[in-house]
UniProtKB/TrEMBL annotation:
Taxonomic source organism: Brassica napus (Rape)
InterPro entries in UniProt: F-box_BR-signaling, Gal_Oxase/kelch_b-propeller, KIB1-4_b-propeller
Residues annotated as signal peptide: none
Domain KIB1-4 beta-propeller, residue spans: 2-275
Protein name per Swiss-Prot or TrEMBL: (rape) hypothetical protein
């Protein structure tokens, strides 16, 4: 705690780019002026990997209504994975609510798969893509270990009422649902809720029952596990210095939200820690962050390894 690290000389391109996603020490970046330019950057070594140009490869018309502006306005559908040893990587996102677009190290161009469901969130772990369908609460798993991805698992969840625990919609509103894959491979569903009368988050965590047909409420992760909501995974808290167990690490930026009822934007350009046991939220190292003007801040775990 109480340590602030400043990284210099990241180059002019970094200042003119937007961070779409992180994995370990690597950032997925998009040029602010040329949306089709996407690259991967190691924030410590400044190693840069240029991805194939999207403009000439994708068979989707480039307009303000679909591909670039709408797609990158919502980082929720961007996914990025990187292997530190082999330098293998996967970059993917959903556009137009119809296409899963992806590129791997071995690919010379972007590939796409047409999908027929609305997926609210997705997580990539162990060469598997986990897709969460919000309207049915189902989880679908695609295997990316081979050249052609194939579906290997899908739940048949009985519908449950999302809002039944909070009947007064003037007091709270469900903002997002996130899919989280635990260290063990178990799938979790995390609901983030915000109060109207203050910028306060609450979280509810659910796990699938043994038949994969019902979501059951989970009251605790245990002191040795923590959720990184932006990454969609859990980590062993005792393997990463300074990480609190039974907590959710999240950034307000990925849930940027306009409240039509109150007519204002939530102030969410910050990073937070939610303690599941106490139901309290705190900002990390307030003595340091009080002197820094944050913009689109997010958590990342350098040299992160999924165990």
């Amino acid at each position: 705690e109480d340590k602030l690290y400043r990284i210099q000389n990241l180059g002019a391109n970094f200042a003119n780019s937007n961070c779409l996603a992180t994995y370990g020490s690597w950032l997925l970046m998009q040029d602010d002026h040329q949306y089709n330019i996407i690259y991967i950057l190691n924030i410590f070594t400044c190693e840069k990997i240029d991805l194939p140009s999207m403009k000439s490869q994708l068979r989707i018309e480039e307009t303000e209504d679909d591909m670039f502006l709408v797609r990158f306005d919502n980082n929720r559908y961007v996914l990025f994975w990187f292997d530190e040893k082999t330098k293998d990587y996967v970059v993917m996102w959903i556009i137009q609510l119809r296409f899963l677009v992806y590129s791997r190290r071995v690919d010379k161009f972007w590939k796409q798969i047409e999908i027929f469901d609305f997926f609210a969130d997705m997580v990539y772990k162990d060469h598997k893509l986990y897709l969460y369908t919000s309207w049915s609460r189902d989880v679908k798993v695609l295997d990316f270990s081979q050249d052609i991805p194939r579906q290997i698992f899908e739940t048949q969840v009985n519908y449950d009422d999302l809002g039944k625990w909070c009947l007064n919609t003037h007091i709270c509103r469900i903002k997002n649902e996130n899919l989280v894959v635990r260290v063990t491979g178990e799938v979790l569903r995390v609901k983030s809720i915000v109060s109207y009368n203050s910028d306060v988050w609450y979280f509810r965590i659910y796990k699938l029952d043994s038949s994969n047909s019902e979501w059951e409420k989970l009251d605790s992760l245990g002191d040795e596990e923590a959720i990184f909501l932006d990454l969609g995974i859990t980590v062993h808290a005792n393997t990463i210095q300074g990480i609190d167990g039974n907590s959710i690490y999240f950034s307000g930026n990925h849930n940027f939200y306009y409240d039509s009822y109150l007519g204002h934007f939530w102030s969410e350009k910050d990073i937070f820690i939610f303690n599941i046991g106490t139901q309290e939220i705190k900002r990390p190292h307030p003595s340091i962050f009080s002197s820094i003007q944050l913009s689109n801040a997010r958590w990342f775990v350098p040299n992160f390894k999924q165990m």
